[in-house]
Each structure stands twice: as structure tokens, then as C-alpha cells.
Design a protein that fits this description.
Length: 538
């Protein structure tokens, strides 16, 4: 909980100053999240949260109706208000809170506290400063959605979010000035409705991936290949194969849409759905040149067959790119934009589906064969790793500045664990973060120079990781400290720096849920072990 699940919430509160938290339907050790006082109050008491806490929609009803944690509806209301909930997304508390008050299960002070937390946020928004229609946000409407600025933002998000996973022999980018024919194949290639993913709004002027590519190549043809993403039939393969045979270049769009993955609809396989793999391989077998594979969807995919197939030259992952996805994809394929995206998750092989998905442990257990989870602890084979992503140019790093030693002894408060262990003759492997009186005093900056050694300008995501040199129990394989996206011109270098807070970035959570800093050498590396420094902590 301390090491993985709570960490992003704490960052959003302490650094981004979030004004609202939402508790989910999930149970945490048998207790519904909305009834976990220790979790909800930790946000206020330890992380400085100043806002309101809402339930996920109907999560309070779930406490009573489905999870059976509360014996009565009024008990459910009392449980969540006692835990620190302020407002219910749904009608359950609207229908039952008065009864809970009448029965003496909810006190008026608890209602006042919830109202205070809600009103404080409304006050900060200026909702009581006269007529809200005359305020800063008072006249926002549909006319403010599809502005040129917002549409450019959608395009830039699609550009930056595209990840180039394979590009054999610099197959991409294609020459946009050459005359050739292009076949675009796949059921997602000519759709616009599914490019936004779940819970997305209406596009301003949505274009399909095929339309985006067609803007560069007039002699472009489309064939679905499959009736839909489920691809449970090969009846349309022949048409797609004919289109591929006739074209000079082929783009196959495969992957996922909301029929394959969405809330309350989990996948049971990491492979491409249905007969998609067969479609891709059939097209690759007849294409004049190696094909370009474009993958859609938000989840990991086992496409090892494509990674290892020399007839598939390039693989691009576009996720759910939104309304500008077609234009962004075309700009990347034809070299008007140099891709610089990185995978935000590890792509596991199909064998990972044998791991029980309700086992939430992060750390690997070699004695039982449990491989662990996430890039920090997973020890099994990968299709693609977290942070992986190619570019049309090459980048080299040079570490400019960083300390090679940190002495924590002078920052320890009172009688420390270190002193007690040394007096007992035991060797100390770590130091409790709680013992350090000023974490801010330990912060240091790592300066990095990034050289663009290629012929194309581009943006590049610099990722800084740490790794504990000692093989201590529970330490991650590596963990991300920070990242920065910088723009570098061809054959030029750009400098950046990333701040390191040892209490946050070099610490781990021990078996008791306490953050500790392992003593000894910490390896701080840019991307991988090719460019690193060693910082000794004692």
C-alpha cells in the first residue's frame, strides 16, 4: 500500500494540490475503500489534503447492497461518514442519511464537517463571489471546446503519445515526396468513434486513421480484413490480401477497442483478439515490402510474433489517440513529426495471464514462481518494457553533475536506530526516513546533456532511474526518479536537470510499510546502465 498503491495519490495531493479524492468500490483487506478511515484520514492528517472526498458512483450503496459489509442501509451511511466521506455520487445517501440521523447513527457534527469540506472548495472557486455568470468561468460553453488552441492540443497529445516500438533498417519514415500506392487494412483503420477511448466526448472534427494517411497518399485504398476488432471470421481476408498485393506499401491497424476492453469488461488474453494475428501474418506474407503495424488500445499486447517477423518492419502503438489521431499518425509515418513517446506500462507475454489477477503483491517470489508486477519488481520475460520507445534519430547522454556521496548521519534526529544497532553490534542496512529531520536538505540535482546525433530534430523523454547496488530483500529492480521531455535539434545538444529527493526517490517501503533508505551504493542511471553514476549513502 505504501510503496505502490498510495504513492500516486500522495503525489497528486502534495505536489498537484488536488481538491478532490474519490474512494472506489474495491475492498482493502476486507473493508470497502469508502469505509476505510485509516486511508481517507491519512490524506488529511499526513498528506495535507484540503478538499472533499466523494465516493465512486453508487459505491456507498455497494457497501450495503453487494458487499454486505454493513447490515443496514443506515449503517452503511454511518460507516462512510465516520471514515471521512463528504459526498455520495449517487442517491443512496440522499435517501438514507436522514434516517441514519434519526436513528442516532450519524451526528449533526459529521454532516457539518462534510458541508464545510464541500463549501471550502466552492469558496476557492469563487462560486459565492456574486453572480457566477460574471466570474472567470461564467461564460464557458460549447464554443470554448473546439477552439484552434484546443484542437492543436489534441494533435500534440496524439503526436507525443505515439510510441515507435520497432523500426528495422530505418524503414520509417516513408518519403512523402515519392509517388506510390498505399493499402490501409484493419477494422479500426476507418473508424472515428472508437479513437477516443472510454468516457470521451464528441470529437470536433474527427478523422479516421485512413483519412489521415490518405491526406499524404492519394492512391490509398482501404480494406477491413475483419468485420470488427473481435475478428472471429476470416471471410474478409481475401479482399485485404488483394489490396496488399496491389499496393507499394501496407499499413495494418490491429489491436483493441472498447468492445475488447472497458470498465467491467476485462480481457482474458494478451494476444490480439480473434484472428487478427492471422490477418497480420497473411498480409505480411504477400506484401511487396515489409509492412507497418499500427496497434490501438490502452492495454498491453503480446505481439512477439510481429517483433520477431522480418516481414514486419515497423510497429507503432497509438493507444486511443483521439480526434487528431489520424493526422498525427500520418505525420509520423511520413516524417513530419519525429516520434518520442515512451510506453507507460510493461507489456507482458501471454504466459502472464496464468498469474492470478487478484494477487496484488508487487514483489516477485522465486520460491513459488510468482514473477511480480510492474517494471519495478517484475522478473519474467517482457514483450516490451516500461519506458521503451524509439525515435528516427539517435540520442546520447552525458552526466554533467551529481554528488558521489551523501552523509545522512548529520540529518538524523535524536537517538537513532543507527546508533542503537551499532551499539548492539549489528550491521545496519537502511535508515528510517522518519528519523531524518530535514529531507529537503538532502535534495540534489542531476545534470544531463542530451545529444541529438541524427539528421532530424525531435523531442526526447529523458528518464532517470535509481537502483540499489546491494541485493536487499524487497528492493526494486529499478525505480523511476523523474523525467523530462526536451526538444533537441539535429547534431546539437540540450541540457536538462532532474531533482532527486533521497527520502522519496531513493527510499523503499519495508515489510512494515515504513519508508527506509538503504545504505551503501545507489546507482542513478539515465535510461539504462549504460549511463550511470554511483552515489554512496552512509
Amino acid at each position: 500500500m505504501e510503496d505502490t498503491f498510495q504513492a500516486p495519490f500522495r503525489i497528486c495531493i502534495e505536489q498537484a494540490k488536488a481538491s478532490c479524492l474519490m474512494c472506489s468500490y474495491n475492498e482493502v483487506n476486507g473493508v470497502p475503500a469508502c469505509a476505510r478511515k485509516d486511508l481517507l484520514q491519512k490524506a488529511r492528517e499526513e498528506w495535507g489534503f484540503q478538499g472533499y472526498i466523494t465516493s465512486d458512483c453508487d459505491a456507498v450503496a455497494t457497501v450495503y447492497e453487494y458487499q454486505k459489509y454493513a447490515k443496514t442501509a443506515t449503517d452503511a451511511v454511518a460507516d462512510v461518514l465516520q471514515a471521512g466521506l463528504d459526498i455520495d455520487c449517487g442517491s443512496f445517501m440522499l435517501r438514507n442519511t436522514q434516517f441514519a440521523v434519526d436513528e442516532g447513527k450519524v451526528r449533526e457534527e459529521q454532516i457539518d464537517r462534510a458541508l464545510l469540506n464541500l463549501f471550502l472548495v466552492q469558496l476557492r472557486l469563487g462560486l459565492f463571489d456574486g453572480d457566477p455568470r460574471e466570474g472567470f468561468f461564467g461564460n464557458l460553453g460549447p464554443q470554448d471546446v473546439c477552439t484552434p488552441e484546443h484542437r492543436m492540443l489534441a494533435l500534440e497529445a496524439a503526436r507525443q503519445g505515439t510510441v515507435l516500438l520497432k523500426n528495422d533498417n530505418k524503414f520509417l519514415p516513408l518519403n512523402k515526396n515519392a509517388v506510390f500506392s498505399l493499402a490501409v487494412i484493419g477494422p479500426m483503420a476507418n473508424k472515428t468513434s472508437d479513437l477516443g477511448g472510454g468516457y470521451s466526448g464528441y470529437p470536433c472534427d474527427g478523422k479516421s486513421l485512413f483519412e489521415g494517411l490518405q491526406s499524404y497518399v492519394k492512391a490509398a485504398s482501404y480494406a477491413a480484413g475483419c468485420p470488427d476488432v473481435a475478428c472471429d471470421s476470416d471471410a474478409m481476408f481475401d479482399e485485404a490480401i488483394r489490396a496488399a498485393k496491389d499496393a507499394d506499401f501496407v499499413v495494418v491497424v490491429a489491436g483493441l477497442d472498447l468492445s475488447a476492453e472497458t470498465e467491467d469488461h476485462d480481457r482474458v488474453s494478451l494476444l490480439l483478439p480473434g484472428k487478427q494475428m492471422g490477418l497480420v501474418s497473411s498480409i505480411a506474407a504477400v506484401s511487396k515490402r515489409p509492412l507497418i503495424l499500427v496497434l490501438t488500445g490502452g492495454g498491453a499486447l503480446d505481439v512477439l510474433f510481429a517483433e520477431q517477423d522480418p516481414r514486419i518492419a515497423s510497429i507503432l502503438w497509438i493507444g486511443y489517440p483521439g480526434e487528431a489521431g489520424g493526422r498525427a499518425l500520418a505525420e509520423i509515418i511520413f516524417g513530419d513529426f519525429n516520434p518520442g513517446g515512451r510506453l507507460p506500462v510493461t507489456w507482458y507475454p501471454e504466459s502472464f495471464t496464468k498469474v492470478p489477477m487478484n494477487d496484488m503483491r508487487m514483489r516477485a517470489n522465486h520460491s513459488t514462481g510468482y514473477p511480480g508486477r510492474t517494471y519495478r519488481f517484475y522478473t519474467g520475460p517482457r514483450v516490451y518494457g516500461f519506458g521503451q520507445g524509439l525515435s528516427y534519430t539517435n540520442y546520447t547522454y552525458k552526466l554533467l553533475s551529481a554528488p558521489n556521496k551523501l552523509n545522512l548521519l548529520r540529518f538524523i534526529t535524536g537517538t537513532s536506530t543507527r546508533n542503537m544497532l551499532q551499539q548492539g553490534g549489528e550491521q545496519l542496512n537502511y535508515l528510517n526516513v522518519d528519523e531524518i529531520k530535514s529531507c529537503d536538505s538532502l535534495r540534489f540535482s542531476v545534470g544531463i546533456s542530451v545529444m541529438n546525433a541524427g539528421e532530424m530534430d525531435g523531442s526526447h523523454v529523458v528518464m532517470l532511474f535509481s537502483k540499489v547496488a546491494k541485493n536487499l530483500e524487497g528492493t526494486p529492480e529499478k525505480q523511476l526518479i523523474g523525467f523530462d521531455r526536451i526538444h533537441t535539434k539535429s547534431y546539437r545538444s540540450t541540457e536538462t536537470s532532474i531533482m532527486v529527493d533521497p527520502c522519496k526517490h531513493l527510499s523503499i517501503a519495508n515489510v512494515y510499510g515504513k519508508r527506509v533508505i538503504p545504505l551503501g551504493n545507489h546507482v542513478i542511471m539515465v535510461g539504462d546502465l549504460e549511463h550511470f553514476i554511483s552515489v554512496e549513502i552512509d
